[in-house]
Amino acid sequence: MPAEARNFFQTARKIVCVGRNYVAHAKELGNEVPKEPVLFLKPPSAFLENGGKILVPQDAEVHHEVELAIIIGKSGRKISPDAAMDYVAGYAVALDLTSRNIQTEAKAKGLPWTVAKGFDTSCPIGSFLEKDQVDPQDVTLVCAVNGQVRQRGNTKDMLFPVSVLISHISHKMSLSPADVILTGTPSGVGPVKPGDFIEISLEGVSRASFSVGEDA
Amino acid sequence: MPAEARNFFQTARKIVCVGRNYVAHAKELGNEVPKEPVLFLKPPSAFLENGGKILVPQDAEVHHEVELAIIIGKSGRKISPDAAMDYVAGYAVALDLTSRNIQTEAKAKGLPWTVAKGFDTSCPIGSFLEKDQVDPQDVTLVCAVNGQVRQRGNTKDMLFPVSVLISHISHKMSLSPADVILTGTPSGVGPVKPGDFIEISLEGVSRASFSVGEDA
Ligand SMILES: [Mg+2]
Ligand SMILES: [Mg+2]
Ligand SMILES: [Mg+2]
């Protein structure tokens, strides 16, 4: 695997996110369970490293969504589900922070989700994990806020597993080394406020933590 | 200005696009004139260089949208409109190719525009132009299909001028050298089909042309 994948924080040219990939989360937001993966993008300017400070934008009601991140290791397009795992360099634990009020308004107006999903620090992410450190379809995702567990779910409950996500995305846009895919969040999403302390983990494998401030 | 801006094709980490920035185009699609710029992203995997072949995705009704592209020259966030032009490295002529049927369905369902806007080759773009080669608020954009002019509009008709766009975007996400901003399209958008030949220009300054094939 190329060094650029391990160094994804500096080199990734896209972050592709999957929405509604856990039935319980789709339902908690009142959304239909999708027939194919819902895709959107965050810009690489959204990355925040372990230990960093989340900046809540003014007038935003930001929600935490803990997710398994896939780091892509080689270039491909129109990849079959059978071949998809060969394109994985590694994994990380991540948050898909979402300005829920702005997203809700965008959805109602048929407008893009970009502003709700793409603000600076909206993609806090842990360190690179080698592929063999994680079982992508049997790892527990945990998000705790101020020491209280808010989200706890296992990747075995994904609607579309990692191999299907990689295949599907690669039919919509080419994948390149260091590209990052966020694979959706289990239920339990909720607010993140200035002063909070957020801890996320792939249980028993990797953890990362973040303080929260205001983007004054 | 850093070399990476001139080399944006290889180095850009985001492409920020502005929708509905010309009143006549907003109206031709039956959309409201927005109170603030509508923003969405294309991934850098969407770039196509001058002379390349546009690949129309299966089941997609792709439309041409000729636009002025801004190439960012230095890092910034929360830039004031007064300072905004200092962040411009140069310009290019570009197409924001759009799978209109997929976008229309996404809008109706409140889903992201990403698949409609982000397919490979959906951002054909001309060569880097130095800042002093272009008057960003008085240049004529032209798009011709098979020798027939389909779009012809002047950037003086932008709803939000370049300085306001840069300022607005930089309040939503940081800008970095080589980032590309597509500034919206004048009226006259229409279909692009396999076998077509597309020519786009900043009249009297720069031109680029593309063949069209099928993404079989
Ligand atoms: Mg989007
Ligand atoms: Mg999510
Ligand atoms: Mg456009």
What features would you highlight for this structure?
binds magnesium ion; 216 residues; 6 helices; homodimer; Fumarylacetoacetate hydrolase, domain 2; alpha+beta
Largest β sheet strand count, sense and barrel closure of chain A: 6 strands, mixed
Fourth-tier CATH superfamily name of chain A: Fumarylacetoacetase-like, C-terminal domain
Number of helices of chain A: 6
**Radius of gyration of chain A from the CA trace?**
16 Å
Q: What is the fold-level CATH name, i.e. the topology of chain A?
A: Fumarylacetoacetate hydrolase, domain 2
Give the chain pair forming the largest contact, with residue counts.
A-B, 31 and 31 residues
Kindly report how far apart the N and C termini of chain A lie.
Answer: 41 Å
Per CATH, which architecture of chain A? Alpha-Beta Complex
Give the SSE map:
2 copies of one chain form a homodimer.
Chain A (H helix, E strand, L loop, with lengths): L2 H4 L1 H4 L3 E5 L3 H6 L9 E5 L4 E3 L3 E4 L5 E3 L1 E7 L15 E8 L2 E2 H10 L4 H4 L5 E3 L3 E2 L9 E6 L2 E7 L7 H11 L7 E3 L7 E2 L5 E6 L3 E9 L2
Briefly characterize the structure:
Helices cover 18% and strands 35% of the residues of chain A. The first copy, chain A, has 216 residues and is of the alpha+beta class. In chain A, the strands form 4 sheets. Chain A has a 6-stranded mixed sheet with strand order 2-1-13-6-7-10, with helices on one face. A 5-stranded mixed sheet of chain A has the order 4-16-15-11-12, with no helix packed on it. The first copy, chain A, has a 3-stranded antiparallel sheet with strand order 8-5-14.
